[in-house]
Design a protein that fits this description.
Layout (H helix, E strand, L loop, with lengths): L15 H28 L2 H9 L14 H22 L4 H22 L15 H18 L3 H21 L16 H9 L14 H22 L5 H22 L12 H24 L7 H7 L2 H10 L2 H14 L5 H22 L7
Helix pairs in contact: 1-2, 1-3, 1-10, 1-11, 1-12, 1-14, 3-5, 3-8, 3-10, 4-5, 5-8, 6-8, 8-10, 9-10, 13-14
Length: 373
């Protein structure tokens, strides 16, 4: 994450499926969402309209495909932990070295999150201090420390259960003054109360922040779940098909548990309820299993290059789309072509913007410049 200078990718074990899945996840952020929403508007096709709805966030309760993008990224960052730590430990690094590295990465991500939130405007009273990158960094920190200081797989599972159960207990049983316990609304949930009491500056939701303090603790659970999945994938005792069955079976079980308790404890991404973690985590496990089976077991990987170029520089493009106007470049070259087709003009411009972003990432890929997470 912190190596911004050109560098050859380190010679270490690498899952093509993980880079591809990360790139697939980021594709929807860099324009894939707008592309399919525009396609639905232009064509009225039933499947496109359905998918277009899936590419929007729910207002509060519930789960759509677009609500999975952030937790999937955090899950993927967790999957990489056993590979990163295992390789370094085998090359002679100490646990102390890794702890320093983890804290450094978390600090850099928090700083980049503040930059994305425009801290350089120096309007500190209106500054939003919680951020997507900050949550990724802190959840990665918590999950990494658990992995580093618990050697047994079972102990890590106990930590995961403890996090999920602890968050559920706080959200359902701890009363908010003048409101009560278990009131899962933007104004009534314990997440918002904690954020209002402890977080300075501006909260994204006014009365709560979806990347607030309790959300960070909860989100560390899905990152730790990713680390558990990574440990399974790195374990040489199981076959590729066996690993696929283990991950997909565990994912289906988590999803079913989440669906069973949904009527009493709904999935809410903005509050990172345990139900949301169970459902999102289950889907993440099944997605990882499918990508791993197809790409790393069956070796059907020629199609992955497009997504891997994105996935290898995910943080780079996340930052870049906030600093560089790629759409202006697309309009400069494609306004004429778009004007020839009024109906499909917006689609042409969106495809152009995605292409410009991808070519930017391809240049970095060819030059072996990677901003790591």
């Amino acid at each position: 994450m912190t190596d911004a200078k050109p560098a050859v990718e380190p010679a270490r074990e690498r899952l093509l499926s993980l880079d591809t899945l990360r790139g697939f996840d980021m594709f929807w952020i860099i324009g894939g969402d707008r592309l399919f929403i525009a396609l639905a508007a232009a064509t009225g096709w039933g499947w496109a309209s359905w998918w277009g709805v899936q590419l929007t966030h729910v207002k509060w309760e519930g789960l759509r495909a677009y609500d999975l993008i952030f937790p999937l990224f955090m899950f993927i960052s967790g999957v990489a932990i056993p590979y990163a730590f295992g390789g370094r430990l085998e090359r002679g690094a100490t646990r102390g070295d890794l702890v320093k590295k983890v804290f450094w990465r978390a600090g850099v991500l928090i700083l980049l999150g503040l930059v994305c939130n425009r801290i350089l405007d120096f309007e500190f009273s209106r500054q939003r201090y919680a951020s997507v990158l900050g949550q990724i960094g802190l959840a990665y920190l918590f999950a990494s420390l658990i992995v580093l200081f618990t050697k047994q797989f079972g102990a890590r599972v106990i930590w995961l259960v403890g996090i999920l159960a602890g968050v559920a207990a706080v959200q359902l049983l701890v009363p908010v003054p003048e409101i009560g316990a278990g009131v899962l609304t933007p104004e009534g949930c314990i997440n918002g109360y904690i954020d209002r009491m402890l977080m300075p500056g501006r909260l994204y939701g006014g009365s709560f922040d979806p990347e607030g303090l309790l959300c960070i603790v909860s989100a560390s659970g899905i990152t730790l779940l990713g680390a558990l999945a990574g440990s399974v994938l790195r374990d040489g005792r199981f076959t590729g098909v066996g690993k696929t069955l283990m991950l997909s079976g565990a994912g289906l079980a988590l999803l079913l548990v989440g669906l069973l308790i949904e009527p009493w404890y709904p999935p809410i991404k903005a509050a990172w309820t345990t139900t949301f973690n169970l459902q999102a985590g289950g889907i993440c496990l099944m997605l990882l299993a499918i990508f791993y089976l197809v790409i790393d077991v069956w070796k059907l990987n020629r199609w992955t290059f497009f997504f891997r170029v994105i996935g290898l520089n995910a943080i780079t493009i996340f930052m870049a789309v906030r600093m560089i106007n790629f759409s202006s470049t697309s309009k400069f070259f494609l306004t004429g072509a778009a004007s020839l087709s009024e109906t499909y003009g917006p689609i042409i411009l969106i495809i152009g913007a995605i292409a410009v972003k991808w070519l930017f990432l391809l240049y970095l890929y060819r030059k072996k410049i990677f901003l790591r997470v």
